[in-house]
Write a structure and sequence with these properties.
The complex is a heterodimer of chains A (253) and B (294).
Chain A lengths: L4 E12 L2 E12 L3 E6 L5 H9 L6 E6 L2 E2 L5 H7 L1 E4 L11 H7 L2 H7 L1 H18 L1 H5 L10 H13 L5 E5 L7 H16 L3 E6 L3 H6 L2 E6 L2 E7 H6 L1 H8 L1 H7 L1
Parallel strand pairs in A: 3-8, 3-9, 6-7, 7-8
Antiparallel strand pairs in A: 1-2, 1-4, 4-5, 9-10
Chain B lengths: L1 H31 L6 H17 L4 H24 L7 H23 L4 E2 L9 E4 L2 E4 H23 L1 H11 L1 H6 L4 H27 L1 E2 L5 H14 L4 H21 L8 H15 L13
Antiparallel strand pairs in B: 1-4, 2-3
The chains are: A alpha/beta (253), B mainly alpha (294).
Chain lengths: 253, 294
């Protein structure tokens, strides 16, 4: 039995001003699956994520989620449907405390399940986040701006998980982090994978991503040039190298 | 010594209204990049509201409360109808929209109340003077300072202690991320218009209680003072707005004390010159140009 399709992107085109960034990208994901989107800087990976999250409006093509077309659904309504983005650069609210950053991530719950049930789930979510990342729980009232890069990434992931999303979009989760912290972030993502979290993860070129996703695709100047099972791609250094520089891929692996 | 204390109380009282005006304006700017030249006319409508309500026989307290609620609703309606469609447009579009709103709302006041000045009937206690030793403090100054402290406290509690306030702070910091966590920008904008409108209602009451009379064109002075205060303090920054308001109050009172009587007529020009000098030295304003609503 095959798992139900969660995300289905067909022919997405978009850009900024007069500049076209994505030229008809297709991507699909089943429930419980994880897929990596790889590509060099400027390939359109982040734009693709922002389009799925609704911040960048598509010029053409369709996005379907759980069998429903959501191409025109507003960004602020997509988290309520179950799509959460951990954006590039983490985008923690520095003027909010750690706990406020978590609470604000669950704003859509009130609309979805009512205030009483939402309050219960928010408290549980905060407890879960603090159990997963004890360092956040130690100083819940500290400003988000006071955290280190790695701690901010933990907070960004926790914030995205507060509403219990079905689909987690991770945009360059290790950017700006030391290799050690990057490995820690991947450990977290692996745990989430083991819990059955569906995920799209964007990376510039990383073996780490290929190690734990099911499939991967490579974007090049706004076009999908290759899609394969992750293990096939990971084992084919010629293929990998042909698309975005084997040295980099091996180096980061 | 007594004279100095007297001047300090004067400066605090004048500065209080400027600080509140700057607070209401800067909050809207921090969320929507809207420089609202129609802010002063909201004060005018608040005062006319109070005037109308007392004229139909409403007692003081309900008239004040209802006029503040009325200005809040008016501000929200203007925000929803006139400004929201242009949020995200270039700042010049919003600026011109605010001039258009000012003219429409001003002419509505002219149609409703006529152009002639109207005397507003405030309770007799407002003109009382309290003697503390050799100090003679008008009760209205104490009410003004007290109201300002109250409004600022409520403002900070809302902004820093409520989920709604957290949403406003988040939206001022990273608007796109705020949408990504499921917050509707329109709801945040309406919250901000409501807070800004309530502040305009309170200041309108205090402002015209001091001047005693009102015309539909009485908006220029408060609008101008509010803009000087926010530019002085640093646009988009709450603490800067408060600081700018009190600094302007202090400069004005200082000028009225030190200037010889034959140049007192030029006081506004001299105040402007001082403000420009401060901005030359600190282009970002006293508190620096960093957007921060709380």
């Amino acid at each position: 039995m095959t798992a139900a399709q969660l995300l289905d992107i067909r022919g997405i085109e978009t850009g900024y001003g007069d500049t076209r960034v994505l030229h008809g990208v297709d991507l699909s994901l089943s429930e419980g699956e994880a897929i990596a989107v790889l590509g060099a800087n400027g390939a359109g990976k982040s734009t693709l994520m922002m389009t799925i999250a609704g911040i960048v409006p598509p010029w053409g093509g369709t996005i379907s989620y759980s069998g429903q077309e959501i191409t025109k659904v507003l960004a602020e309504d997509r988290l309520g449907l179950g799509i959460a983005l951990v954006p590039e650069g983490r985008q923690i609210f520095g003027s909010l405390s750690i706990e406020e950053n978590l609470r604000i991530g669950a704003t859509c719950l009130k609309r979805r399940i009512g205030a009483t049930e939402a309050r219960k789930q928010i408290d549980e979510g905060i407890e879960r986040a603090f159990t997963r990342f004890p360092v956040l729980g130690k100083r819940p009232n500290d400003s988000g701006a006071a955290l280190s890069g790695g701690q901010q990434q933990m907070l960004a992931i926790s914030r995205a998980l507060m509403s219990g999303p079905k689909l987690l979009l991770m945009d360059e989760p290790c950017m700006g982090l030391s290799p050690k912290l990057g490995n820690e972030v991947y450990d977290i993502l692996k745990t989430l994978r083991a819990e059955g979290q569906s995920m799209v993860i964007v990376e510039e070129s990383s073996r780490r991503a290929l190690d734990f996703v099911d499939r991967a695709c490579i974007l090049k100047v706004g076009r999908k040039v290759l899609e394969a099972q992750a293990h096939e791609l990971a084992n084919d250094e010629h293929l990998l190298g042909a698309y975005f520089g084997i040295e980099q891929a091996v180096e980061q692996g | 010594m007594t004279a100095l204390l007297q001047h300090i109380v004067d400066a605090l009282s004048v500065g209080s209204t400027y600080a509140l005006l700057a607070l209401g304006l800067t909050l809207v700017y921090s969320i929507m990049n809207l420089i609202n030249f129609g802010y002063g006319i909201l004060l005018v409508w608040g005062a006319y509201g109070y005037l109308g309500l007392t004229e139909v026989g409403l007692p003081f307290a309900p008239a004040v409360i209802l006029s503040v609620v009325g200005v809040t609703l008016l501000t929200m309606a203007i925000g929803r109808i006139a400004f929201r469609p242009f949020i995200g447009a270039p700042p010049i579009t919003l600026l011109i929209t605010s001039f258009a709103v000012l003219l429409i709302v001003q002419y509505a006041a002219i149609v409703a109340w006529g152009e002639a000045p109207r005397i507003i009937d405030y309770p007799g206690a407002f003109t009382e003077v309290i003697n503390i030793g050799a100090l003679r403090i008008p009760l209205l100054e104490i009410i003004t300072i007290g109201a300002a402290i109250g409004v600022v406290l409520v403002y900070f509690v809302i902004l820093n202690r409520t989920p709604l306030g957290a949403q406003v702070r988040a939206a001022a910091e990273i608007p796109d991320m705020t949408r990504l966590v499921g917050i509707k920008p329109g709801a945040v904008q309406m919250t901000v218009f409501a807070i800004s409108g309530a502040i305009a209602g309170v200041v309108g009451f205090l402002w015209f209680a001091k001047s005693g009379a009102i015309t539909p064109r009485s908006d220029l002075d408060p609008t101008l003072k509010a803009f000087i205060a926010i530019v002085l303090g640093g646009l988009g920054n709450t603490r800067g707005a408060l600081l700018g308001g009190f600094a302007l109050g202090a400069i004005e009172v200082l000028m009225s004390v030190v200037l010889p009587s034959n140049v007192l007529g030029y006081e506004p020009a001299i105040v402007f010159a001082i403000v420009i000098a401060i901005l030359v030295l600190r282009p970002g304003g006293i508190a620096g140009a960093k957007v921060n609503p709380a």
